[in-house]
Design goal:
eight-stranded mixed sheet, 21 helices, about 45% helix, 19 strands, about 15% strand
Length: about 625
């Protein structure tokens, strides 16, 4: 379906901030096709749309498909780099170079679960008792930092199992060069060793000032003593430490699932920004435009949003990080815990990485509210505004959910039906459903539509009785039929038979098969073809038709494969799949000789001969032909 939001790229380019961040390019289907990072979003994103800018053919093709872009502002280039990596792995955009695994950025790992903890570099974060710091953009800086920790705190990085292996072997080189206190030989007590571990953890957690001051002092002393080699060593270590001090908050040291919620408010308008953290990584975000009362507090707005948003979302994380306490927060925690089936925490972080992540969400919400207000208002006119136009045209009291149906039976081949759902003017694709017609022979649209509607609403009534929550148990306020009086009469008959009261209208076509009006309650109502309401009806019609055609095409494709291969004696499902996996098309199978066919996994000489003879009947021996003709 075409992009519904009217997005003026040139206008939006003017609003880009000169800040570091990540940008996401969307195509006409709103799929993310490229994710990139930038020191300055304003400069980088504009380059894609500048005439004459030297671009590779791949990027040229990508730019031609861009219909809109969005961006997330970060506090540093490092944060942008790590967030870019997370989003690429999550969305796998078509025009990004794909990474094959998570071994991209290094972490510092401290095995605090061991009696004599080790500190070393790793590229994989696991769910164990260790503490992880990072990820960091430079493995070189991490190695130097670990080297510094070894020199400062004399911690081991060997793989010896302590205390079991104490005294079993000689101490290693690091002991002799005074970079390890020799716990493997029992030269330091467990208590004294773990005190140094705590100091190292304090350093890795961000308390760099004492170490930086010490290194600066030693560098100065070495320089004054004309020990320039020593001064260079301390200078290089200082550089590494300062590189590591560039903290980032896009990936957490734990692997919990969290949502981060923050708001921006201006008068009656508010934006709630939600960052989604899965496995400790920010993998995406979304923002929600809401209308509020003039006297609504931030706690009231946040509490109301949480209740509405998580009532419909399929997944609830273990923790929600909020910018402020929500109204009735304890009650919301109990409700979310019941829905999730395990404890859910609502927390307001006051310091550290989590607090900064909430601030980043809040800043992005403010940018959306300030820069996207006009575009969001236009979108609202095309969705909620269009729904209100239809509601007023039909004289309805309430109109939120609309369902449209279509039948496809191209060339008389097997009929199928489609059901598409729009809520508040936007497609709700999770509620789309498709139907394979069971009781109707041949191309009979009226009978097929009657079957589809009967099955859909019978299923819905059963779901309501059993208190099930699915797309069938939610009934629409309005049914849109792709036709006039005939289709409406079919729908009304089904509703009457099932005892359901739902408003139904049809689209009346002109001689050129264009919608000219609405058929409603035995009357044709004229509609302004330039109005947003008419445009929304057209989008719903097109979507129902597209969905039906897409399903019909898939069935025809499957049927073609079945008719050609499954009718060959000796070729069952396993061999059919093996042939289709080995050959790119039916024509390739038709052209293959018996030897090539027999080489396919699961095939043998007899089955290969059967396939070959099926496609080349003229190759059969004459004696066999004679026997066949006489039988």
């Amino acid at each position: 379906m075409a992009e519904e939001i009217q997005f003026d790229i040139q206008e939006e380019l003017k609003k880009l901030p000169a800040r570091p961040g990540v940008y996401l390019m969307h195509d006409e289907r709103d799929a993310i096709i490229y994710v990139g990072k930038a020191i300055s979003l304003r400069n980088r994103v504009r380059q894609y749309f500048q005439a004459g800018y030297n671009r590779s053919p791949k990027i040229e093709q990508m730019v031609s498909r861009i219909r809109r872009f969005e961006y997330i502002v970060t506090d540093s280039e490092l944060e942008a780099l790590v967030l870019e990596n997370n989003l690429i792995k999550e969305h796998r955009p078509k025009y990004n170079t794909m990474l094959t695994d998570d071994k991209t950025y290094p972490f510092i790992k401290v095995t605090v679960g061991e009696e004599y903890p080790r500190v070393f570099l790793t590229r994989q974060m696991k769910k164990d008792k260790a503490r992880y710091f990072g990820p960091f953009s430079s493995a070189w800086a991490v190695r130097d930092t670990i080297d510094l920790i070894r020199k400062l705190y004399h911690l081991r990085d060997c793989s010896r199992s302590l205390p079991k292996d104490i005294g079993n072997d000689r101490p290693c080189l690091y002991y002799h060069i005074k970079q390890c206190d020799g716990p493997c030989m029992g030269y330091i007590s467990k208590e004294a060793y773990n005190e140094k571990v705590e100091q190292a953890l304090d350093f890795l957690s961000g308390n760099y000032k004492p170490v930086i001051s010490m290194l600066e002092k030693k560098m100065q002393e070495a320089s004054e003593q004309m020990d320039f080699e020593g001064a260079i060593v301390y200078r290089d270590l200082l550089t590494s430490v300062k590189h590591v001090t560039q903290k980032q908050k896009i990936t957490s040291e734990d692997t919990e699932d969290r949502d981060v919620l923050a708001m921006a408010i201006d008068g009656r308008d508010a934006i709630v920004q939600v960052f989604f953290i899965r496995g400790g990584r920010v993998i995406g975000r979304d923002h929600y435009w809401i209308r509020i009362g003039l006297n609504d507090s931030r706690a009231t707005i946040l509490g109301s949003f949480i209740q509405q948003f998580y009532a419909g979302t399929p997944y609830i994380p273990r923790e929600l990080m909020l910018e402020t306490e929500a109204e009735e927060q304890e009650l919301l925690e109990k409700w979310l815990t019941a829905k999730r089936g395990s404890r859910v925490y609502l927390r307001v972080p006051r310091r550290g990485t989590k607090e900064k992540l909430v601030e980043m969400a809040k800043e992005n919400a403010q940018i959306v509210l300030r820069q996207d207000r006009e575009r969001i208002k236009r979108e609202e006119g095309r969705t909620i505004g269009a729904v209100k136009e239809i509601q007023e045209l039909l004289g309805m009291d309430k109109l939120v959910r609309m369902e449209a149906y279509d039948i496809s039976n191209i060339s008389g081949y097997e009929s199928v039906g489609s059901m598409v759902v729009f809520e508040k003017g936007k497609p709700k694709r999770s509620d789309y459903r498709k139907f394979r017609i069971r009781t109707v022979e041949g191309p009979n649209d009226y009978a097929s539509m009657e079957e589809v509607l009967t099955r859909r609403f019978t299923h819905g009534l059963e779901g309501k009785k059993q208190m099930q929550e699915d797309s069938f148990s939610s009934f629409p306020d309005l049914i849109l039929m792709d036709g006039g009086r005939g289709q409406v009469n079919v729908a009304e008959r089904v509703m009457e038979n099932l005892g359901i009261n739902i408003e139904i209208c049809g689209m009346v076509k002109d001689d050129y098969h264009r919608t000219r009006g609405i058929y409603y309650k035995n009357k044709e109502l004229p509609i302004d073809t330039h109005s947003e309401g008419f445009k929304l009806i057209t989008r719903i019609q097109d979507e129902a038709h597209r969905f039906a055609i897409e399903y019909h095409r898939s069935l025809r494709s499957k049927a073609q494969v079945h008719s050609v291969l499954d009718d060959i004696p000796g070729i069952g499902e396993t061999r059919r799949k093996a042939l289709m996996k080995h050959f790119p098309s039916i024509e390739e199978i038709r052209s293959a000789d018996e030897e090539t066919l027999a080489a396919v996994p699961s095939m043998n000489a007899a089955s290969a001969a059967a396939v070959y003879m099926f496609f080349h009947p003229a190759a059969k021996p004459e004696a066999e032909d004679g026997n066949s003709s006489g039988s």
